[in-house]
Amino acid sequence: MMKLDPKIPPGPLETKWDRRRFSEKLVSPNNKRKITVIVVGTGLAGASAASTLGQLGYQVECFCFQDSPRRAHSIAAQGGINAAKNYQDDGDSVGRLFYDTIKGGDFRSREANVYRLAQVSMQIIDQCVALGVPFAREYGGQLANRSFGGVQVSRTFYCRGQTGQQLLLGAYSALCWQVERGQVTMRPRTEMLDLVMVDGQVRGIVARDLVTGRVSIHTAHVVVLATGGYSNVYYLSTNASGSNVTATYRAWKQGAAFANPCFTQIHPTAIPPGDTHQAKLTLMSESLRNDGRLWVPTMRADHRCPGDIPAGERDYFLERRYPRFGNLAPRDIASRAVKSVCDEGRGVGPGGQGVYLDFADVIGRQGLDVVRERYGNLFDMYQRITGEDAYDAPMRIYPAPHYTMGGLWVDYNLMSTIPGLFVIGEANFADHGANRLGASSLMQGLADGYFILPYTIGHYLATAKLTPVGEDHQDSRAAIQRVTSRISRLLNSKGGRTAASFHREVGQLLWNHCGMSRNEEELKSALTSIAALQEEFWRSVMVPGSGEAFNQELEYAGRVADYLEFAELLCHDALHREESCGAHFREEYQTDDGEPQRDDNRFAHVAAWEYREGASPILHKEPLAFEFVPPTTRSYQ
Amino acid sequence: MTRPSHHFQSTVGSKVVMALSGLGLMIYVIFHMLGNLQVFEGPHALNAYAAFLRDMPILLWTTRIGLLSLATLHIVLAIQLTLRNRHARPIAYAVHEYRQASFASRTMAASGLVLLLFIVFHLLHLTAGVIDPSAVDRLDVGGHHDIYGKLVHAFQNPIIVALYVAGQLGLGLHLTHAVTSSIQTLGLEHAAFNRLFKAAGPTVALVVVLGNVAIIMAIFLGIVRG
Amino acid sequence: MKFTLNIWRQKGPDEGGRFVTYEARDVSSGMSFLEMLDSVNQGLIAKGEEPVAFEQDCREGICGSCSLVINGIPHGPDRGITTCQLYMRRFPDGAVIIIEPWRARAFPIIKDLVVDRRALDRIMQAGGYISAHTGGAVDGNVLLISKDQAETAMDAASCIGCGACVAACKNASPALFVGAKVSHLALLPQGKPERTRRVKAMLEAVDREGFGSCSNQNECEAVCPKRISVRFIATLNREYLRAGVVESGLPAEPESPHAEST
């Protein structure tokens, strides 16, 4: 029976982390070099963790499926990274960042974790500066800040629109240093496909060399997963096409609890999907909503050009429904509003999937040059993708899956329910509760990797009893057997359908039934359809080529197989959570004017799911206590 | 610690040595042109200048040996780097389109080869007198070697003129890319001067080619006479 | 729209390659170049044939994975973009498109259009970093960095490591890639203590990996998706010369990077 012990240190919030660090046991320097740590994933969390653990003297083996650790999807984050530096002296503090994050997450995250995140946020900036990250500066040479995501303070540090890239390259360079020192062995183009479990502890991974196709065992004393989120289960998302759920999903099957999978963030301002060949959705920066106005025609199926629609026949729906925040309503609220007007048949563009984001007013008020200077690169990007000029006609936008707050359950020390398996970054269920604020994901990834995991992992290593495990251990052989039999099953199913067609189908199913709004009936029907799709997949998927060579289609088919199973878990969780909170909106639980209704009595808990072979997953609940911030209703009306 | 000599054996180091030796040769070429331009001042001026140089054998031979070593260094490194660069792309593209590389930059090896052949010819022709023995070792009225007369005699021949003009075009093409490229290789870069650096190659090339061709053509067209 | 594609197919690193012709039908002008290839591949897979292997990941021009030479130009005919940002409306209907991999000895072909670019990682490992221990950093505002300096460093740091500079260079030289990193770190005060060692180590790695040398043709700049300027190659050369001069006057120092870890 699984037990969820969050291991939160008792006592005042402000000193929990300090006391935990002091009470932790340390590993002596002589012993560190005899300890092997596996880190899977080289995004912000993985690269920062691997480099820091290398610095500490551990032998680190670091894996990524990309050809270089620098290509992990953290690289694509645009906006910035939050830190409670209060350089602007505008009233920011650790407490305020903590409060904003708890409230933004709709009171579904752990207070102790979020407070620690806010505390270490300041060190992150200093560390990144030391590594040479070229943050934007003021004329006087000090670090510049901007406000982001509707908070009332300026606490976001940025490098133009490429903050994720610069932070990742900083962590990557630190990783390069450790590779040069011989502390980290880098294994690019290697995909983790399973865990090696010995006596209930994780003792290594099974990985496939994507170039040669060789499947092999890599043993270690402890394994860290930093494998990102699962937005790609929706097929179309803003994630890189390689981002996948396989590592966390297979860890789940080995006994790690999966927490809150239904908390998936849908970003309101992406370029709408075009034709069926489209492979990804491109995000347009949230900053566009500072000046752009969202509207749709009041009439349904109105195919006139936007310029021909008179003001009286336009519905500025965010301004109408949320007069106080208007077009700047938070991500989850804005996304749902867009969906609801499109569902009414008032959407614009191909398939009625889109709303106008109109800059005519600001162009009229401040002139074309001002708009060009402020958003020129975004307008260029829009034109390149759609072939339309947004200076002449309004942009069309539509929400897109973007980030997943859910992930493997971890305790305060970032360890999953499997002893020795640590999970960091977007891959864990994180500190964002039911909804993440802008510029917080970079902060969390680096907090986990640079400053939290390197402490907590030592305590586990100093206290756990770890006997030597080799490749010939029976549990190693069992793990490798699981992987190879699955691969041959994929290769032997010679049907006529491509893996992509299944991916698209399950993605659309989830988008329609478990996307921005959900209800019991649709979730139940989705579960039935998913089961049928799984069967169909194993019967008729077509994977050409062999397993003993570079085979991108085989990699992809394996990931799609996991999406198909994971989609079920996602729906189970959405079905269980009979409330609307953050990104999770259940149609049955809304106020009369269509606002989400949270249920703190029944659902102020983390839903952690345990895998059971051949049966529905088992739900475990970790109650969330709010000792320091009493839950309130989020209202933006 | 590595010795500085080791520092210049790397590819970037080799490029630096090439740039420096090239610039050295360029300086010689400019002085060579300036000296010869005295042809427009008449036989006395040019022959006296030649005699002045000949009277200082140390300078003469230092220059000759220096030039020979610079040229050898330049050529050996060029061959070394070219071989290395060829090696760096074993399979060529089926299609390759240049986007902004100048014609001069794409023909450095060819223009360099033309230039080398021309220099050999030039030395055999006017310095050693192998090509046209009648052209050397005459004395003028002042008892100096009659360089002026030698030039006037040489450039009466249209074939010789054509070869010299072709050599100058090779020189010009080479300098057009070489000078700007050397500046970049030596790490000189500054927002205020970058346009100047970019213009340096074509400017030097134009000046040198115009100067030298002016001498040749002036003689050939009879503007400068014996 | 319809296109004829001549694509380089090669089974593995040690096998010979050749061009194979494919027809891309029912292409819409709003499709990206990679989506067009996706649809060709879907057709191949459904027939049980092996799809054309090519690299891609973020599809928004920042990860640096995609790497196709299209009609003789890395990342295709448009400037300042990666292959994934290229759209089919850029090509006339019925066009013949030749698709090749990055070609360089240092980038051996893994399969079809996929090449091994680990050489770039090894150059970075040789010295493309600042050795700053986690946790030891001073407050970010202690180091004042002028806005211009930060912006120039950012210009250089925006390199995505795609390798188009190597692919476009007639000598397969990574001078722009190395120049961008050396300049980025040399421009910032944090990077100064290690600048001598860094530039030497990175350029030694370049030579070790079998890349060519820079001929200052500036083709790299023309194909760079981030439009990184060749002025950073001048900075690289200057840093290298400086390293030669500075170091020749310094006493011997322990150069082994492993000395610290023992």
Please describe what this structure looks like.
The complex is a heterotrimer of chains A (about 625), B (about 230) and C (about 260). Chain A has about 625 residues and is α+β, with helices and mostly antiparallel strands. Among the domains of chain A are: about 270-400, Succinate dehydrogenase/fumarate reductase flavoprotein, catalytic domain (Flavocytochrome C3, Chain A, domain 1, Alpha-Beta Complex), CATH 3.90.700.10; about 495-610, Methane Monooxygenase Hydroxylase, Chain G, domain 1, CATH 1.20.58. In chain A, about 35% of the residues lie in helices and about 15% in strands. Chain A contains 17 helices and 19 strands. In chain A, strand 1 (about 35-40), helix 3 (about 45-55) and strand 2 form a beta-alpha-beta unit. The model of chain B has no long low-confidence stretch (mean pLDDT about 90). By secondary structure, chain C is an alpha+beta fold. Chain C contains 8 helices and 7 strands, in the order ββαβββββααααααα. Chain C has helices at about 35-45, 120-125, 145-155, 165-170, 175-185, 195-210, 220-225, 230-250; strands at about 5-10, 15-25, 70, 75, 95-100, 110, 115. In chain C, helix 6 crosses helix 8 (about 230-250). Mean pLDDT of chain C is about 95; it is low at about 255-260. Classes of the chains: A alpha+beta (about 625), B mainly alpha (about 230), C alpha+beta (about 260). At the A-C interface, helix 3, helix 5, helix 6, helix 11 and helix 12 of A face helix 1, helix 2 and helix 3 of C.
User: If helices are DSSP runs of H or I spanning 4 or more residues, what is the number of helices of chain C?
Assistant: 8
Number of domains of chain C: 2
Low-confidence stretches of chain C: 254-262
The fraction of residues in strands of chain C falls at: 5-15%
Short overview:
Helices cover 71% and strands 0% of the residues of chain B. By secondary structure, chain B is mainly α.
Q: What is the secondary structure topology, with strand pairs?
A:
The complex is a heterotrimer of chains A (637), B (226) and C (262).
Chain A: H1 16-23, H2 29-32, E1 36-40, H3 44-56, E2 59-63, E3 81-82, H4 94-104, H5 111-130, E4 156-157, H6 163-180, E5 184-187, E6 190-198, E7 201-209, E8 215-219, E9 222-225, H7 246-253, E10 258-259, E11 264-270, E12 293-297, E13 314-315, H8 317-321, H9 331-346, E14 355-358, H10 360-366, H11 368-386, E15 395-404, E16 407-408, E17 421-423, H12 441-463, H13 474-492, H14 499-513, H15 520-540, H16 552-576, H17 600-603, E18 605-610, E19 618-623
Parallel strand pairs in A: 1-2, 1-9, 2-5, 9-17
Antiparallel strand pairs in A: 3-4, 6-7, 7-8, 10-16, 10-18, 11-15, 12-13, 12-14, 14-15, 18-19
Chain B: H1 4-7, H2 11-36, H3 43-54, H4 57-88, H5 103-106, H6 108-127, H7 147-154, H8 158-185, H9 194-220
Helix pairs in contact in B: 2-4, 2-8, 2-9, 6-8, 8-9
Chain C: E1 3-10, E2 17-24, H1 33-46, E3 68-70, E4 73-74, E5 96-101, E6 109-111, E7 114-115, H2 118-127, H3 147-157, H4 164-168, H5 175-187, H6 195-208, H7 219-223, H8 231-248
Parallel strand pairs in C: 1-5
Antiparallel strand pairs in C: 1-2, 3-4, 3-5, 6-7
